[in-house]
Amino acid sequence: MAFSDYHRLADVLKKFKIEPIDHPDLFAGVADVQPSAFVTASLHHGLPLATAIGTEKARSEMIVVPLLLDLKIHAPDISLFSGVELSVDPEAGLTGVCDFLVSRTPEQHVVRAPIVTLVEAKNENLREGMAQCLAEMIAAQIFNQREGNDVVTVYGAVTTGSVWKFMSLSGQTVTLDPEEYLISRPEQILGILIQMAKG
User: Fold this and answer.
1) Most exposed residue of 91, 121, 137, 186, measured as fewest CB within 10 angstroms of its CB?
2) What is the pTM assigned to this prediction?
3) What is the distance between the alpha carbons of residues 81 and 68, in angstroms, rounded to a whole number?
């Protein structure tokens, strides 16, 4: 079993004994951050194209990646990875390829602790993506602990490119933000991503 085999959030919660909490104001105090001219132009041209193509790959490349590049500019001490394997406990189903992950270290050649943010790009199925992303967050939490870097919170984001949902994992509790954040307000999404990466 791998991250991609998780399709129901309830199954992940039950298997790993995680307690869910809804928190509509999880990122209420986060300031907006204006995206660069590059991101603004990329979204202007890429969003309609990615939506028309309709694949996860197109959404990742044309919508998600430009925002994550801006994240790296605003938080230069992080490392950003795309399509890397995170294998923590294959027998427990905590293994597989992560769409994107962020580590709070400038080392860019090897994934090192602490992994603080995981972004899962899905093709219109946010609920399924939340299950997969939470499994990745649990794996990141264990990875951090094993590496002796026990950060308090690991964050996750699930996106279709057009719609974003956020959550955080602390101990055995996952806090879910019920709000859906729209790409029509990229400054809000970028602000949250920066907050998640910097802690």
Assistant:
1) 91
2) 0.95
3) 10
- Domains of the chain, with CATH numbers? 3-198 (3.90.1570)
**Residue 52 one-letter amino acid:** A
CA-based nearest residue to 35, from 43, 27, 47, 24:
43
In 54-185, which ranges are continuous DSSP H helix?
56-59, 65-74, 126-146
Cβ atoms of 4 and 131 within 8 Å: the answer is no
- The most distant pair of C-alpha atoms in the chain lies apart, rounded to whole Å, by 45
Residues in the chain, pLDDT under 50: none
The tokens describing 9, both together, are 């959030």
Q: Which two tokens stand for residue 21?
A: 């909490």
Instruction: Classify burial at 1, counting beta carbons within 10 Å of its beta carbon; exposed 0-12, middle 13-18, buried 19 or more.
Output: middle
Separation of alpha carbons 176 and 130, rounded Å: 10
CA 90 vs CA 1, 31, 148, 187: distances in Å: 7, 39, 21, 37
Are 187 and 32 in contact by the 8 Å Cβ rule? The answer is yes
Q: What is the pLDDT of residue 31?
A: 96
Distance CA 181, CA 175 (A): 16
Residues 103-121 have pLDDT tens digits of 999 999 999 999 999 998 8
The H or E element spanning position 78 is none
Quick check: 104 and 78 in contact, CB under 8 A? yes
